[in-house]
Amino acid sequence: MSVSAQTVAAIPDPLPDRTPRRSSAIRMRALREELAALALAGPATALLLALFILPVVAVFIIALSDWQFGARTLRFVGLANFAEIAGDEGFHASLLNTLLYVLMVVPGTVLSGLGIALAIESGRSLRALYRAIHFLPFMATLAAMAIAWEALLHPTIGPVNQALAGLGLPTANWLRNEATVLPVLAVIGIWQNLGFAMVLFLAGLKSIPQDLYDAAEIDGADGWLDRLRTVTLPMLGPVSLFVVVVVALRAFEVFDTVQILTEGGPGRASEVLLLTLYRESFEFLHAGYGAAVTIVVLAIAVMLTLAQAKLLDRKVHYQ
Amino acid sequence: MAGVGIEAISKSYGGIPVLRGVSLDVRDGEFLTLLGPSGCGKSTLLRIIAGLEIQDGGEIAIGGRPVDGARPKRRDVAMVFQSYALYPHMTVAANMALPLRMRRLSRWQRLPLIGPLLPGARAATARIEEEVRRTAAALEIGHVLERRPGQLSGGQRQRVAVGRAMVRQPAVFLMDEPLSNLDAKLRVTMRAEIKELHRRLGTTFIYVTHDQAEAMTLSDRVAVMLGGELLQVAAPQEIYADPADRRVAEFIGSPRINLIPAKVRDAGAVEIAGERIAVATGLPAGSQVTLGIRPEALFPAMPDERGFHGHVRLVEHLGSDLYVHLDAAGMAEPLIARLRAERAPDLAIGMPLRLTARTGHILLFDADGRRLRSNASAGSSDIPALGPELFAEPVP
Ligand SMILES: Nc1ncnc2c1ncn2[C@@H]1O[C@H](COP(=O)(O)OP(=O)(O)OP(=O)(O)O)[C@@H](O)[C@H]1O
Ligand SMILES: [Mg+2]
Questions:
Q1: What is the Cα–Cα distance from A242 to B115, expressed in whole angstroms?
Q2: Which of B67, B86, B95, B98 to mutate to test the interface with A (most CBs of A within 10 A)?
Q3: pTM of this prediction?
Q4: Among A288, B125, B260, B310, which is most buried by a count of CB atoms within 10 Å?
Q5: What is the β-pairing status of strands B16-26 and B4-13?
């Protein structure tokens, strides 16, 4: 005690005579910090502006015009492009296909991703291997994978049909049949996103405190179903919300598999929004119309995300 | 209600022994505390009693019935976890009702939506709700029943955890450091409440802590654990005054007991730094022993008396008491004395000081750290008589 009292007394009080000098020093330092902040944030802001904000502004402007891709002139036509979209049956079909695709891919991905994560987590050996196998589709180049799928699903020499025929089951021309094309594309979509969902669920499972499982066991919730219902699923709530939102957005923006495997066919049976957008803009060169489609897609995506977050967020964060 | 028999329990993790043959009989209705430093295996033992962990060897019996093969649910024990382990997505009421629902409702009756429509479900649920309300009222958390754990204070969460354990009236309560997440003040309050709860319920409590104040104030008996072994099981007062082992003496008491290496000079005296001190050991001359003197047993010697002499190194004021650190001649570590403030009013750093104690307050340990009881009150577990002062005899 006496030691600390001495120590305190030994420090001379610097405040009274130095106040003016210190405040100017503080101003200098504040200025330096502001300059440093500008220097650090500047490049990122410039890049953001050039790569993201300006293009979006450009899309909005183009959407209000009749610009043809590559043309030197353009005329502003107001909301005419949006009016055209509203009445366009091709767009309606494309929107419906996309929604159906999302409605198949999201539950399929979430359920199978969760199932595989639970299976991997409960097993003991070869976890890393299983994880890698399931994560592969997410990392692999999609174009190459799509070609592999095309071979698999080939109507005559494809292994899928050969296996079905071998078992005496009916076969189909999977990608050329209006009834099967969308579900088959959805299966491919699920396969693609599965690894992503699974890795997130695995991380979520790891972060559930062991104490909760112990408490459930003592409370008598010791069957696997009870444990799943009292601890695992509720505790995976936040992760599930994230997976649902991200997978929904990815499914909503499906393009490459469709373009490579079906080009939207047969007819318009597998035409999706991004395909419509791409075609209008770059094949038919209706850049104005394409930009308007882009904005509609963007608006739907933003609305979906907000709605999901609003509806589910409060239910999964337990505060 | 039931006692718990723990018989030669051993457990290792990856070849490293964590429990080495722990045996202990917890009496029916007793409040027993497992006390020991971090990592000594307290939680492991508690989890083995609960059935959350399976022992490598040994047996557990609850209420005289062996339970080694039984799952936690069948052991009729309830546990309060250090983290409380409340289900964050359920309301307080649902948290507390869960153990009853799992036991009294069938799998079908527990289903959402259709479950409540099944015969008997409604009546059973109403009874459960009533019991939850009663328990919550007893713990003064009746007004937070509809909240989620995330919306509660630390103390309220702790009560909910106790409530969830209490509501189904288990034969044994297991508590793993239930107060360690609370601030110091609340910890003292909740300590008193747990004591009161035990008195009211009369159920067997097994309570794990590394906090000696908790162990001393709450327990009927304290089991001191170290390195996977039980060193001593006795009433708190006895653990303090009559430790069976040097490590027990070191662990209990604050500040820590002074341990002074000494050599036996003859049957009636030992030698410290060339000074003869009157302590009867009954050991052959030349043997090494350790003298344990509690800081509160030391007091300043009269001016003309002998004692452990040296200069004051540090004085810590604690209001009513002072901790005096003395650099005593011939000792490697400073002696720490706990003195009443009014008995040493003007001690300052650097002052010369002589400290002494009474022989009856000396704890003697052999070279292996076992307690030697041949001094003052040989072998008895009573608090030893005061005895004469250590340095009473003149140097021959
Ligand atoms: N599942 C496990 N796997 C490997 N080692 C473990 C496991 N559980 C506990 N141990 C080890 O066993 C020893 C005792 O652990 P235990 O949790 O029983 O200690 P404790 O006395 O409760 O400590 P604390 O006061 O810190 O809670 C520790 O060394 C710990 O590292
Ligand atoms: Mg522990």
A1: 31
A2: B98
A3: 0.80
A4: A288
A5: antiparallel
C-alpha to C-alpha distance for A139 and B60, rounded to whole angstroms: 52
Instruction: Tell me the one-letter amino acid at A98.
Output: T
The rounded Å distance from CA B67 to ligand 1 centre is 23
Count of CB contacts below 8 A, A vs B?
74
**For a pLDDT cut of 70, what percent of chain A falls above it?**
90
A252-284 pLDDT, tens digit each: 888 888 888 888 778 788 888 888 888 888 888
Chain segment B120-157, per-residue pLDDT in tens: 888 889 999 999 999 999 888 999 999 999 999 888 99
Q: How far apart are CA B208 and CA B192, in angstroms?
A: 16
What is residue B185's predicted lDDT score, i.e. its pLDDT?
Answer: 87
What string of DSSP letters covers B296-309? GG-EEPPTTS--EE
End-to-end CA distance of chain B: 63
Query: Does the beta carbon of B3 lie under 8 angstroms from any beta carbon of chain A?
Result: no
In this structure, is the dihedral angle defined by the CA atoms of residues A51, A57, A63 and A66, taken in order, positive or negative?
negative
B85 inside 8 A of chain A by CB: yes
| DSSP for B8-58, written as a single string | EEEEEETTEEEEEEEEEEEPTT-EEEEE--TTSSHHHHHHHHHTSS--SEE
A5 contacts in chain B (CB < 8 Å) = none
Q: Do B348 and A1 touch (CB under 8 A)?
A: no
Query: Would you state the pLDDT for residue A316?
Result: 66
Q: Which has the closest alpha carbon to A291: A91, A71, A50, A64?
A: A64
Instruction: Write out the two tokens for A303.
Output: 């609305």
Low-confidence ranges of chain B (pLDDT < 70): 1, 345, 374-389, 391-396
Cα separations in angstroms, A2 against B317, B318, B355: 10, 13, 22
Q: What pLDDT score was predicted for residue A319?
A: 59
Both structure tokens of B56:
């490598």
Helix (H) or strand (E) holding B362: strand B362-365
- On chain A, the residues whose CB falls within 8 A of the CB of B319 are none
Determine the residue of B40, B54, B80, B209 to mutate for testing ligand 1's pocket, defined as the one with the most ligand atoms within 8 A of the Cβ atom. B40
Cβ B38 under 6 angstroms from ligand 1? yes
pLDDT for residue A43 is more than 70: yes
Residues 6+ apart with CB under 8 A from A315: A237
Closest partner residue to A219 (CB to CB) among B99, B150, B348 is B99
Backbone angles phi, psi at B111, to 5 degrees: -60, 145
* Averaged pLDDT score across all residues of chain A: 83
**Over 80: is that where the pLDDT of A74 sits?**
no
Alpha-carbon distance A155 to A174, whole Å?
A: 7
Domains for chain B: give ranges and CATH numbers: 4-241 (3.40.50.300), 255-394 (no CATH)
Cβ atoms of B358 and B322 within 8 Å: the answer is no
Among A219, A225, A229, the strongest candidate for a mutation testing the B interface, having the largest count of B CBs within 10 A, is: A219
Which sign does the torsion angle of CA A90, A95, A99, A105 carry?
positive
